[in-house]
Amino acid sequence: MPHVEPRAGHDPLEGIDATGMITTGAHRSRIPEAFGPVLEAVVQRLAQAPGTPSLYVYGSVATGMARVGRSDVDLVTIGLDAVIARSWSQELSVRFSRLCRGVEIGPAEASDYQGPGDEAHGNRVFLRHYCVHLSGPDIGGTLPDFATGRDAARGFNGDIGLRATQWRQQRLTDDPAPLARRIARKTLFAVAGLVSVHDMVWTTDRIAAARRWCAVRPELAAALDMLVAWGDAGSAAPSAQAIQQVLDDVVAPVVADFQDRIGLWAPAPSGVA
Question: Taking the model in full, what pTM does it have?
Answer without folding.
Answer: 0.92
